[in-house]
Each structure stands twice: as structure tokens, then as C-alpha cells.
């Protein structure tokens, strides 16, 4: 089977449309965090209800991405992209006009469902529109767009919140998506030639399973990891996901074709964003808190320092794509990027409350460069291993690994920081305040030292995890051994894409 785009295709406009959408979705993640204080003050809320402005988005985003990707293969990738973008825009407008925190949380959950459709179908659109070197460049640009969204989100939202209020930040997300959707008519439609009915049972079980697992991870730090509620959520989530695998193995038209997961190279490439979450996203989330709390930097100054890590994410993806198109294997580029994560996190243990920017500039640049090299190239290499009719399913699974790991790892990382700080300050409640950047509950020097110790331990553990991930992924991407010919030239693996060889 093949998937042939239908209708007139304008690749340049298609790329711009998808890039705009991919810029907005991560911007809605990082930018919303800046708006939380203003939301809490305006809607008179705090604590868990306020935090669910972030959690609701991440929860539905992670849970619906695989379903959206498989549905896109059946109903059409352009159609799924437009529907997802429309749902995202409506959710953002609803968030901008919400009159209380419950309505805002519901609107954010709706936006997360739309974001899942955009991410799953957008990658599939590029995979079926471009091929060869052009596809490598397209996915490199996609990596830059996603990085720009993550990096620019806090800055743009900060300006809007300061000048117009928090509602303007969500209005911006809706406006950018509306501009992107205006060009959707230039995208050629494509879908799988064989179009069985959607596996509704599998979809329900998967969404329930992953959603429950993510919910348990998110609530773990608040309720306690050993609490009956969290343990029940984690056990039920894992059980439902196991049931999902069993159902897919027996289904004639599965939501997830398990042959994809059995392809060790594809699965290895899907693990790249998981390692990126450990090595990059955790720092993007918790380093600003340390800089503002322990180092005493202003939010603006902390954001400026963070540019050392985020700027390379914007610049490196085209460099990585160029290297691959010039003959450097994607496997080599990816392995180097993951080693950079390990080195950057290990090196960042030089950070102290009094450390100058010059001291931490090296590790931040190294970590950001690692993220930039892996963004885009890994996705493009993964899609080169997939048949066109499974493009949506494949991008859905890939981004499920990305978003799901972010929701779970960030929650666990935060819980680890709190536990480590509590061993130094003697109070879990005080440790939670310290990990959130509030060092006013005691001697600031002692609390800063406790925060620094916890961060150093977390960085060391992250570096170890990234090292293990780099070795495992590089090994999984290695071509199989072949008999050496008489000329001592190894036979090429006909199933191995050129960029991975």
C-alpha cells in the first residue's frame, strides 16, 4: 500500500503552515507557566486548581496523541490537522475568556486535545509531502520551530501578561493557530489506502490507561507517592496499558501496529525524546526556579541566562540536518547529542548560589546544543523507517513518548528535588517551598545550600540516565552484522535508510 497526497500540493506553504502550528503548541506549555501568578490573583485561586492550568493541558495532550495520529491515517492528515488546530484555537479562546478556574482548566484540557491532533498529523503531513534530503531539512526546521516555541513562550507571555493581562497570552495562541489554518488549503490531503474503522475500544483503553498513569505521576508529589490514591492510579494505569497491548495484538485493525514497536530502530528513535526530557526539559522547568530562589535573580535576569540553553535549540537543528544530508549518519548525530546531555548535566554541578554566568555558560550551551542536534533529526529518521500509510500512527506514537515522558519525568524530578531538600531542611513543607523558589521560610543561606545539594544530586542522576540512554540507543540503531565479502566490504542492510547507515 502507498499513501499518495490528493489535490494540489504547495510544499513551501505546507511547511510554513505546519511550522506555525508547531511553534504555538509548545509555546502554550512554557508560556502558560508565566501567566499562573496573574491567573491566581485574578481568579482568586491557588494550589492544585491553579496548577491544573498546566496539568490539564499536558494530561490530554499526552493521552490523545496516539489516537489522533491513527485517526489521521484513516480520515486524512490535513483534515485531522485542521480539526486539531480548530479545537486548539477554540480551547485557547475559551481559556482567554474563562470566568473561573474550573472553566479555565476545562478549556486547557480541550486545548491539549487539539494540540495532540496538530502534533500527530503535522509530522505525518511533512513525512508524506517531503522525501530524502528535503524531508531531513523539513524535520530540522520542525525542530527549530518547536524549540522556538519553548524558548519564546515565557518571554512573549511575560510581555503580554505585564502589558495586557494573562488573557492576552491565550488569545495569542488562538490567533497564531488561526493564521496557520488559513493556509491549510495549500496542504494536499493524504490518508492510508486501506481505511478500516477506528479501533474505538483500543482508543478508550489507551486514553484511560495513559491518562490515569500521568494523573498518578502528577499527583504523586502532592498526595505522596505511597498514598493509596497515587498507588491505585499508577497500578490501574499500567494495567490498562498492558490490556491495550493485548487488545492490539488481537485486533485486525489496531490503533497501534505492534510491528512498529518491534522495530528496534524505530523504538530507539522514539526513546530519543525521552532522554531529551531527562537532559533538557527538566532543566528548562526547574533551573529558572533555582536561579530566582537560590541565586536571587529577577525573573527577567533568569530568563536571559536561560537563553544560553535555549538559543542553541533554535540554531542547531538546521546544522544537524545539513550534517545528515552531507553524509554524517543520523545515528552519529543523535548519539553525540545524547552524550552532550550527559556532559552538560554533569558539568552543571559547578552551579552554586554565587556562581557567575560565566561559570554555568559552558554546561548550558552544551546542553542546549545537544537538544538542538536531536530535535528534528530524530523525528525525521524515525519517519524514514515507516511505511507512508502508517505516518500518522508513527508520529502519534513518537509524540506520545515525548509528551507522556515530559509529564511523568517532570513530576518525578520535582518530587526527587523535594525529598532531597527535605533531608537538609528537616521539613517536607519547607522543602516544597524551597523547590518552588521560595526561600523566605528560614535562613536563606541554609536553604540555598539545601537546594544546591538537591540539584547537584539530581543533575548527577540525570547525567547517568542520559549516558545509559545514549549507549542503548546507539546500540539499537547499529546496523546488523553481515558477512564480510571477499573485498572486506560489509553488505549494506537494504532495510536501513541511508541517513541511519
Automatic annotation (TrEMBL):
<feature type="transmembrane region" description="Helical">
    <location>
        <begin position="81"/>
        <end position="103"/>
    </location>
</feature>
<feature type="transmembrane region" description="Helical">
    <location>
        <begin position="109"/>
        <end position="127"/>
    </location>
</feature>
<feature type="transmembrane region" description="Helical">
    <location>
        <begin position="302"/>
        <end position="320"/>
    </location>
</feature>
<keyword id="KW-0472">Membrane</keyword>
<dbReference type="Pfam" id="PF07690">
    <property type="entry name" value="MFS_1"/>
</dbReference>
<feature type="transmembrane region" description="Helical">
    <location>
        <begin position="168"/>
        <end position="188"/>
    </location>
</feature>
<feature type="transmembrane region" description="Helical">
    <location>
        <begin position="266"/>
        <end position="287"/>
    </location>
</feature>
<feature type="transmembrane region" description="Helical">
    <location>
        <begin position="225"/>
        <end position="246"/>
    </location>
</feature>
<keyword id="KW-1133">Transmembrane helix</keyword>
<keyword id="KW-0812">Transmembrane</keyword>
<feature type="transmembrane region" description="Helical">
    <location>
        <begin position="332"/>
        <end position="351"/>
    </location>
</feature>
<dbReference type="InterPro" id="IPR011701">
    <property type="entry name" value="MFS"/>
</dbReference>
<dbReference type="GO" id="GO:0022857">
    <property type="term" value="F:transmembrane transporter activity"/>
</dbReference>
<feature type="transmembrane region" description="Helical">
    <location>
        <begin position="51"/>
        <end position="69"/>
    </location>
</feature>
<feature type="transmembrane region" description="Helical">
    <location>
        <begin position="200"/>
        <end position="219"/>
    </location>
</feature>
<dbReference type="InterPro" id="IPR001958">
    <property type="entry name" value="Tet-R_TetA/multi-R_MdtG-like"/>
</dbReference>
<dbReference type="GO" id="GO:0046677">
    <property type="term" value="P:response to antibiotic"/>
</dbReference>
<feature type="transmembrane region" description="Helical">
    <location>
        <begin position="357"/>
        <end position="382"/>
    </location>
</feature>
<dbReference type="InterPro" id="IPR036259">
    <property type="entry name" value="MFS_trans_sf"/>
</dbReference>
<dbReference type="InterPro" id="IPR020846">
    <property type="entry name" value="MFS_dom"/>
</dbReference>
<dbReference type="GO" id="GO:0005886">
    <property type="term" value="C:plasma membrane"/>
</dbReference>
<keyword id="KW-0046">Antibiotic resistance</keyword>
<feature type="transmembrane region" description="Helical">
    <location>
        <begin position="454"/>
        <end position="478"/>
    </location>
</feature>
<feature type="transmembrane region" description="Helical">
    <location>
        <begin position="139"/>
        <end position="162"/>
    </location>
</feature>
<feature type="domain" description="Major facilitator superfamily (MFS) profile">
    <location>
        <begin position="14"/>
        <end position="481"/>
    </location>
</feature>
<feature type="transmembrane region" description="Helical">
    <location>
        <begin position="403"/>
        <end position="422"/>
    </location>
</feature>
<protein>
    <submittedName>
        <fullName>MFS transporter</fullName>
    </submittedName>
</protein>
Amino acid at each position: 500500500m502507498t499513501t499518495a497526497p490528493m489535490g494540489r500540493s504547495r510544499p513551501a506553504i505546507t511547511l510554513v503552515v505546519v511550522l506555525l502550528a508547531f511553534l504555538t503548541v509548545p509555546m502554550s506549555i512554557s508560556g502558560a507557566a508565566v501567566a499562573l501568578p496573574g491567573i491566581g490573583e485574578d481568579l482568586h485561586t491557588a494550589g492544585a486548581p491553579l496548577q491544573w492550568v498546566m496539568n490539564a493541558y499536558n494530561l490530554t495532550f499526552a493521552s490523545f496523541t496516539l489516537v489522533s495520529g491513527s485517526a489521521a491515517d484513516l480520515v486524512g492528515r490535513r483534515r485531522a490537522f485542521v480539526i486539531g488546530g480548530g479545537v486548539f484555537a477554540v480551547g485557547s479562546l475559551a481559556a482567554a475568556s474563562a470566568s473561573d478556574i474550573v472553566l479555565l482548566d476545562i478549556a486547557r484540557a480541550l486545548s491539549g486535545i487539539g494540540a495532540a491532533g496538530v502534533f500527530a498529523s503535522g509530522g505525518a503531513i511533512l513525512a508524506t509531502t517531503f522525501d530524502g534530503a528535503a524531508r531531513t531539512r523539513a524535520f530540522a526546521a520542525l525542530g527549530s520551530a518547536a524549540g522556538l516555541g519553548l524558548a519564546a513562550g515565557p518571554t512573549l507571555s511575560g510581555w503580554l501578561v505585564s502589558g495586557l493581562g494573562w488573557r492576552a497570552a491565550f488569545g495569542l495562541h488562538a490567533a497564531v493557530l488561526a493564521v496557520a489554518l488559513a493556509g491549510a488549503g495549500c496542504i494536499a490531503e493524504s490518508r492510508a489506502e486501506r481505511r478500516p474503522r477506528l479501533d474505538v475500544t483500543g482508543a478508550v483503553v489507551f486514553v484511560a490507561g495513559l491518562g490515569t498513569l500521568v494523573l498518578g505521576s502528577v499527583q504523586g508529589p502532592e498526595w505522596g507517592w505511597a498514598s493509596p490514591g497515587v498507588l491505585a492510579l499508577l497500578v490501574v494505569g499500567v494495567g490498562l496499558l498492558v490490556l491495550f497491548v493485548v487488545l492490539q495484538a488481537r485486533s485486525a485493525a489496531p490503533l497501534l501496529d505492534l510491528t512498529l514497536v518491534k522495530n528496534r530502530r524505530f523504538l530507539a528513535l522514539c526513546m530519543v525524546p525521552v532522554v531529551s526530557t531527562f537532559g533538557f526539559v527538566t532543566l528548562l522547568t526547574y533551573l529558572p526556579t533555582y536561579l530566582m530562589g537560590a541565586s536571587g535573580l529577577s525573573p527577567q535576569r533568569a530568563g536571559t541566562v536561560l537563553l544560553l540553553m535555549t538559543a542553541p535549540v533554535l540554531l542547531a537543528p538546521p546544522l544537524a540536518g545539513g550534517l545528515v544530508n552531507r553524509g554524517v549518519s543520523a545515528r552519529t548525530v543523535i548519539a553525540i547529542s545524547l552524550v552532550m546531555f550527559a556532559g552538560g548535566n554533569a558539568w552543571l554541578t559547578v552551579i552554586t548560589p554565587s556562581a557567575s554566568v560565566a561559570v554555568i555558560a559552558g554546561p548550558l550551551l552544551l546542553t542546549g546544543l545537544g537538544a538542538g542536534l536531536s530535535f528534528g533529526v530524530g523525528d525525521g529518521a524515525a519517519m524514514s523507517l515507516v511505511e507512508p500509510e502508517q505516518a500518522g500512527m508513527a508520529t502519534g506514537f513518537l509524540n506520545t513518548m515525548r509528551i507522556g515522558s515530559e509529564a511523568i519525568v517532570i513530576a518525578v524530578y520535582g518530587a526527587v528535588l523535594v525529598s532531597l531538600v527535605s533531608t537538609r531542611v528537616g521539613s517536607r513543607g519547607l522543602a516544597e517551598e524551597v523547590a518552588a523558589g521560595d526561600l523566605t521560610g528560614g535562613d536563606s543561606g541554609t536553604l540555598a545550600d539545601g537546594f544546591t545539594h538537591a540539584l547537584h544530586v539530581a543533575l548527577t542522576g540525570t547525567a547517568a540516565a542520559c549516558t545509559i540512554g545514549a549507549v542503548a540507543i546507539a546500540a539499537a540503531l547499529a546496523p546488523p552484522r553481515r558477512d564480510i565479502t571477499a573485498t572486506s566490504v560489509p553488505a549494506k542492510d537494504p532495510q536501513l535508510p541511508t541517513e541511519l547507515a
